[in-house]
Amino acid sequence: MKLVFDVLHLYYLPQYLPVYRELLKQNAGTATFIFYHGVHDEIIKEIIQQEALDHVWVSSCEQAIEYYIQHQADWIFFANACDHLEQVHKVSRTVQLGHGIGPKTSYYTKSNTPTTVRFVEGEYRTQRLKQMYPEDTFVDVGFCKLDPIIQGQSSTIDLLQVGLEPDKKTLLYAPTFYPSSIECFPRDWPNTFANYNILIKPHYFSLSKSKYKKQRELLEYWQTFDNVYLANVTDYSLVPFLASADLLISDASSALFEFAALNKPVVWCDFLKLRWSYRGPFAFRFKNRMDQDYGEYAEIAVHAKKYEQLKSIVDEQIANPALLSKERQHYAKKLAGTLDGQASKRIINYLINH
């Protein structure tokens, strides 16, 4: 079986790699990773070497499509919607494997252009997608990104090596790029949390796109504090951070649900920096950006309505990590499906059988 993984963005890779490793484990075939030239080529080359990936470089989606038509893999993986699928489907079957399980409506709308199969996390979302797109194929496999943690095979952050103190509790701040809480944090907030290690893992776009320059300036300033480690672009995977932290602080990010699925405490920041086009009479745009279940999902975490509440909430959750355990487990099943570390195996088995 010949697989191809389309890595349009580097942050797709943590979702693909568990499936790739399962393919090798079962000796079920070969895989090629398609990388797109950009500002981080040298970093990607390091990752390719570390993971020993068979790979091809392209400069555009059109060039990638040409490659797919020419090389005719059995299955091609996409992490998001893709144009020109009608051409690809003449020679190959396709998979959509989303990179996150967050609360945005895009989770559903990216199935507007249907792949041969979409692998989904949990019965609830599978049924919703089937109702929205009754002619398409959706298969509930679970959330393969967490397989390495559940199996106890995930790497972790070496706190001592990155200048932190292993005897302290560790907080993970993992904000998304928009709408984000980054600009709402004080410049000196790490001082307030001096009794904790702080791992900061922003979204890839916050570190790589010019339009988020102000976010990057704040993040780089926070890196100067002794109790902070700021992930850089080479830290492309959130998984080691999820495995290393005792508590997560985040906003409208899929990291909230991925961390909660591990049944560890989450603090959800309700204070967000919204563009003027998302405020006042345009607030409906923010609501439209979020899934219809956004309000219900909120029960998975303790909420900080404003930054000033954050420290006391974090202290309480660290002291009592089991407080929302039942809620986390309920929504983890709804959003991530079966968490047994076997999602990648179910994916490979499906591909073999079809």
Number of helices: 17
Largest sheet: 7 strands, parallel
- Span between N and C termini? 11 Å
Radius of gyration, whole Å: 20 Å
Tertiary shape: globular
Query: Which oligomeric form is depicted?
Result: single chain
Q: SS-based structural class?
A: alpha/beta
Assign the CATH architecture of the largest domain: 3-Layer(aba) Sandwich
Give the strand content: 15-25%
Unreliable stretches covering 5 or more consecutive residues:
275-284
- Share of helix among residues? 25-40%
Order of helices and strands: EHEHEHEHEHEHEHEHEHHEHEHEHHEHHH
Class of the largest domain in CATH? Alpha Beta
CATH superfamily of the largest domain: Glycogen Phosphorylase B
How is the CATH topology of the largest domain named? Rossmann fold
Order of strands in the sheet with most strands: 3-2-1-4-5-6-7
* Domain count: 2
Write down the overall mean pLDDT. 90
Strands, count: 13
Protein name: CDP-glycerol--poly(Glycerophosphate) glycerophosphotransferase
Organism: Thalassotalea marina
InterPro entries: Glycerophosphate_synth, TagF_C
Pfam family, one: Glyphos_transf
